[in-house]
## 1
Amino acid sequence: MYTIAIANEKGGVAKTTTTTSLGACLAQLGHRVLVIDLDPQANLSLALGMESANISSTVADILISQTNPNAIVHHTSLNNLDLIPANYQIGLADRYLPVQSSYEYKLQKYLQQYIDVYDFVILDCPPHLGAVTTIALTAADLLLIPTQVEYFSVYALRNLMDLVRKIRHQTNPRLMYRLLITMYDRRNKIHRILNEHLHESFNSGLMNTIIETDTKLRESQIAGKPIIYHSPKSRSSSQYQALAQEILEYVQET
Amino acid sequence: MYTIAIANEKGGVAKTTTTTSLGACLAQLGHRVLVIDLDPQANLSLALGMESANISSTVADILISQTNPNAIVHHTSLNNLDLIPANYQIGLADRYLPVQSSYEYKLQKYLQQYIDVYDFVILDCPPHLGAVTTIALTAADLLLIPTQVEYFSVYALRNLMDLVRKIRHQTNPRLMYRLLITMYDRRNKIHRILNEHLHESFNSGLMNTIIETDTKLRESQIAGKPIIYHSPKSRSSSQYQALAQEILEYVQET
Ligand SMILES: Nc1ncnc2c1ncn2[C@@H]1O[C@H](COP(=O)(O)OP(=O)(O)OP(=O)(O)O)[C@@H](O)[C@H]1O
Ligand SMILES: Nc1ncnc2c1ncn2[C@@H]1O[C@H](COP(=O)(O)OP(=O)(O)OP(=O)(O)O)[C@@H](O)[C@H]1O
Ligand SMILES: [Mg+2]
Ligand SMILES: [Mg+2]
C-alpha cells in the first residue's frame, strides 16, 4: 500500500482535481485505489458524484469523533476506486485534535487495516497547514505538491517546506516530496518564466509531467466524473495518465 | 469607518487580489484605507511589497498574543493605503482562540480606535471558515464574496451562507453580503452558463461589476504593486475602479 498526500497551503492549485484524476488513472490501470477527502469543502466527494448532504459517516468520524462506523468507505461508480468522503465537520479538526497526544498518527493507524486491501491511498488536503495536513503528511510515503506557476503559489512552497522538515524530524522520517506543475498555460509568458525558475530551484524535485489548462476538467467536475471517463481524448486525460505512469515508475524505484 | 470582509472558503478565487485592488482604488480616490492580512500565507503583504520575514509585529499580535505593539500598522508606498501584515502565526488561531469567551469580537474591539482614522478597513481572509473568518465577519459591515464561475466555487457558497446566518444570529446582526464574480472568461461556455445560474440564484445579491481574467494582475503581484499603478490602462484596472465606485454608492445608500 503506497500513500500519497496531495497538499498545498495555496488555494485553487488543483489539489482536488489531481486527487480525482490521478486516482481514476491508477484505478483504470487495475490498481486498487482509496481516495480520502480531508477538506471541509468536500470537493473530492462532489467530483466523484457524492453530495455530502447524503452521507452519514465521513472522515471526521475517523479522526475526530472516532465512532468507527462501518459504512465509511464508499465504492464509487468506477471499478477499483473507493472514497472516504468529507463534510464541514473535518473543519473542526484544529480545535479538537492538537490537544490529543500523538494525534498526528491517527490516519496512519487507521490505514493499517487496508495494507492488503489497497495498492494506493490518495489524500486530498485542504488549503491550510493545520492538524489535518500534519496527519496526512505523517501517514504519507509521498507528498505530491500541485503548484501553479504563479507568484503566490511559488511563495507558498516556503511554509510547506518548513512543514516537511518538521514532519521528517518529528513524525515521519520517510516522507518524500515532488512538485507537480498544474494549470500551466504555455502561451503565458509569466508561466514560462516561473516554470524555468521552479526548475532551477527544485530540479529533480519536480515531476516531469506537467498538467496544462484544459476546460474539460471543469466540465467533468460538473458531471461528477473523472476526466478519463468524461473526456478520454482530452489533453488533460493524457497528461494525468502520463502522471500515473510516472508515479508508478517512481514507486517501483523507491 | 466602513469595514469590508473579503472571504470565501474556496481557494484561489481572488480574495487577496480583490483586497489589494479595491483597497488601492479607494485610496486613489482619496479615501483613507487600512487593509489587514488575515492569512498565514501573507499574500496581501507580498502583493504590497512587504515580505513577512522582515516584519516583527503582525496581526497575530492583535488577535492571539495580544502584545499590543505600536509598530503594527505600516504605511505602504501608496498614499492613503496602510497595511497590517500577517505571517504563519495567524494560522494558529483555530487552536488558541475558540476557547476564549467572546473571542469573536477581538478585531471589532481593536478597530474602534480607528473610527476617525480610516474611511475603509478591508480584511483579507484565508480559505478556511475558522476562528479568523468568524472574527472578520463579526467586525464587518459588508462581506464581499469573490467567486469564480466554477462548480466547486459556487458550491462553496453553501457553507459560507450557513456561516453568515450564524454570524447574523450570534455576533453581528448588521452583516450584509454581496457576491463578486472574479476571473470571468467570457469565451468560456461554462463561465457563461454558471454566470446566468448565479444571477438566477442570487439576483440582487450580486455586484454589477464583474472582474474578467487579466494576466496583468499576476504581473502586478510579482512587482509588489496594485494593478492601478502597475498597469493603469489594463482592463482589470478599469473593472476594479468600477467596483470601487459601486461599493461607494452601496455604502452611501445603506
Ligand atoms: N488543468 C486545469 N485546467 C483548467 N481548470 C482546472 C485545471 N485544474 C483545475 N482546474 C479548475 O481550477 C479550480 C481549482 O481546482 P481545485 O478545486 O482542484 O483546486 P484545489 O487546490 O483543490 O482548491 P482548494 O484549495 O480550494 O481545495 C477548479 O474549478 C478546477 O475545475
Ligand atoms: N482577474 C484575474 N485574472 C487573472 N488572474 C487572476 C485574477 N484574479 C486573480 N488572479 C490570479 O489567481 C491566483 C489566485 O488569486 P488570489 O491569490 O488573489 O486568490 P485567493 O482567493 O486570495 O487565494 P487563497 O484562497 O489561496 O487565499 C493568483 O495567482 C492571482 O494572480
Ligand atoms: Mg480542493
Ligand atoms: Mg489570498
## 2
Amino acid sequence: MRFKRLEMVGFKSFADRTRVDFQPGVTAIVGPNGCGKSNVSDALRWVLGEQSAHQLRGDSAVDFIFKGAGKRKMMGLAEVTLTIDNSDHSVAGPFADFAEIQVTRRVHRDGEREYFINKVPCRLKDIRDIFMDTGMSGRGVAILQQGHIDAILNAKPEERRALFDEAA
Amino acid sequence: MRFKRLEMVGFKSFADRTRVDFQPGVTAIVGPNGCGKSNVSDALRWVLGEQSAHQLRGDSAVDFIFKGAGKRKMMGLAEVTLTIDNSDHSVAGPFADFAEIQVTRRVHRDGEREYFINKVPCRLKDIRDIFMDTGMSGRGVAILQQGHIDAILNAKPEERRALFDEAA
Amino acid sequence: SRERFITTFEQIDHHFGELFTALFEGGQAKLHLLDPDNPLESGIEITAQPPGKKNGSINLLSGGEKALTTLALIFSTYRVRPAPFCLLDEVDAPLDDANVGRFNRLLRTMAISTQFTAITHNKSTMEAADALYGITMAEPGVSSLIAVHLEEEPQLAMGEAVAVG
Amino acid sequence: SRERFITTFEQIDHHFGELFTALFEGGQAKLHLLDPDNPLESGIEITAQPPGKKNGSINLLSGGEKALTTLALIFSTYRVRPAPFCLLDEVDAPLDDANVGRFNRLLRTMAISTQFTAITHNKSTMEAADALYGITMAEPGVSSLIAVHLEEEPQLAMGEAVAVG
Ligand SMILES: Nc1ncnc2c1ncn2[C@@H]1O[C@H](COP(=O)(O)OP(=O)(O)OP(=O)(O)O)[C@@H](O)[C@H]1O
Ligand SMILES: Nc1ncnc2c1ncn2[C@@H]1O[C@H](COP(=O)(O)OP(=O)(O)OP(=O)(O)O)[C@@H](O)[C@H]1O
Ligand SMILES: [Mg+2]
Ligand SMILES: [Mg+2]
C-alpha cells in the first residue's frame, strides 16, 4: 500500500480544494505559525477514521468545517479524500482487488456524516477496516502529533502495547 | 526581591559545585541535548519549595542525587542554595529585615531532608513562606517548564485561577 | 478583596488584549469570568482570535499560536504585578523565525522589571540575550557551566555557543 | 500467536537497541516485558542509557533525549514491519543541531521503505527532504499549498522556504 494524494475542501483553514501529492522518500511541509500545516495532519487522521474530535483539536467534527475568514463565508461542509495505491494488494477485505482505492469522509454543518469508498457510500467502520493491520490504523503511531512526542514514554506500560500489537 | 545566584552540588548531573550568577535583563542558557539545562530549572524549582518530585521528573527526591557516571561514584547528598537580594525588604515574615537571604535545601541518600535559611535549620514550610506572595511560589508561573507551555490553555477554567490569584 | 480581584482581573485583561495584538500584529483576545457574580471562585475563560481569523475555541489554535497566547497571558500578569524572576525553558521551540523575533523584542521590554533566564537552542534568542551561559558535559554525565562573554569577541562567543548548542 | 508476539517483540528490541546506539552515538537501550509469562497481556517497560550516563528512569531524560528515544522505538517497529506512510509533526523541535542531523540521516535510511512527511521549521530538515511543500495564508485565514522545487534553483527555493518558514 502506498499513499498517492490527499485532497481537502472546506476542512479547517483549507477552504479551497487543495491537493497534496505524496512523493516517495521524505517530503517536508513548511510555513509560518498558524498557516495550516498541522491541519493537514488532522485531515489525514480524520480520513483514516479517527473517532475522537478532541484528538484533532475540535469539540465535534462540525468544528472542522471552514468557519469563514475576512470576506469569506462559513462553508456548508468539510470533505477529505485519500487516494491509495493498492497495486500490491496489501489491503485486506472487500477492496483487496482494487489497484486504487479512494476513501472520502464528509461532515455537514447540520452534523450529518457521509463516508465513501471509491465513491460508493459506506459506514465509518468500512473505512477503518481498510486500514486495520496496515500500520495505518488508529492503534499505530504512523502520525506523530505536534507536542505529543513524549506520549509513548509517558504512557503506562500497558498502554504502550498498541504500538507492539500493531507490528506483531 | 532580586535573585543573585543559584549554587548546586550533587544535584542531578551537577556533581561538582556549580554557581549560576543571575544578571539583570535576559540571560540565555545554551548547550546540547541532555547537557543539564533543564536540570538547572529543576534545581531552582526544588529550592523554591516544590513538593512534587514527579514535577521535577523524579519518583522521589533521592532521585535528584548525582548517581554517578563513568569513573565517578554516586554521591551521598544533593544540595541547592539560592541567594536572594532583599534590600527592598519585599519579603514578608521573620526574614523581612535581612538585606540578603540564603535558602538551602538538601536530601541525603537515606532520604533524610534538611532545610536552612541563612544557615539556620528550618522546615520546608518556612522556605515556602518566604516566597508566598512574591510571585515565586509554586502557585505562580514564574518557571515555565519544557514542553508545558500549553498547560494554561489546556487547563480547566477553574485550574487557571492560580495564575490570577497570585497577581491579585 | 472581591473588588481588588475584579480590579486586578480587569487590568490583566487590558494588558492581555494589548500584548496579544502586539505579538500577533493584529487580532484580539479577551479574558472572561465564567461566573461574574462569584469572582473569587469563578473559572476563567480565554478567547483568542489571530488576525484574519474567525473566533473559535483556543484548542483549534496552532502550536505556535498557543505558545504566543500563553506568553501574552503570563506577561500580562507581570504588567500588573511583575514577578522578580522568570525562567523560560525552550518556550521558543514552536515559534517560526518571525515570531521568535517578536517574542524576543517583547522579552527585552519585560526584562526592565523582571530578571529572565531563557533556556534555548535558538540562535536569535541567544543573540538577543544580555548574558550567555553554556552548559557542557566535557566529562561524560557531569555538567559544567561556562560564562560566554558576548561583548568581547562576539564572533568567537557565538561560535562557541553555536558549537555547544 | 503467543510465539509470534514474542518473536516480533525480540526483533523490535534488537532494532531498538541498535537504533538508539546509532542515534546517541553510544549508550544502550532495551525493552522488557513486565510479565514474561503472560506476553499477550503484559505491559512493556523501556530502559534507556545515553552514553556516559548511568541507567535511570526514562523520566529523568532530557526533552531531546526523550524525543530521540521515542523515534528509535517507533522506527524499530518499522524495521520489523514497515508502515507504508508516516507523518511527523515538528518532532525535530527539541533537538539540537547535531541531533537534527542524526535524525535526518536516519530518516533517509527509513524512507527507502516508508513515505515520510515531516512538518518542520528546521532548515536542515528542509534541506534533507526530497520534496518540499510550503503552506501560506496569502488570503488571511485561508490556507494554500505551493510545491517548492528543490532541484531547480535551489537557492531561490530555499529562500522561499525560509521566507515562509
Ligand atoms: N474550522 C476552521 N475554520 C477556519 N480556520 C480554522 C478552523 N479550524 C482551525 N482553523 C485555524 O487553523 C489554524 C491552525 O492551523 P495549524 O494548526 O495547521 O497551524 P500550523 O501551520 O501547524 O502552525 P504551527 O507552526 O504554529 O504549529 C488556527 O489559526 C485556526 O484558527
Ligand atoms: N540524579 C542524576 N544523576 C546523574 N545524572 C542525572 C540525574 N538526574 C538526571 N540526570 C541526567 O540529566 C540529563 C538531563 O538533563 P537536562 O534535562 O537538564 O538536559 P537539557 O540540557 O535540558 O537537554 P534538552 O536540550 O534535551 O532539553 C539526563 O541525561 C539524565 O540522565
Ligand atoms: Mg502545527
Ligand atoms: Mg531541557
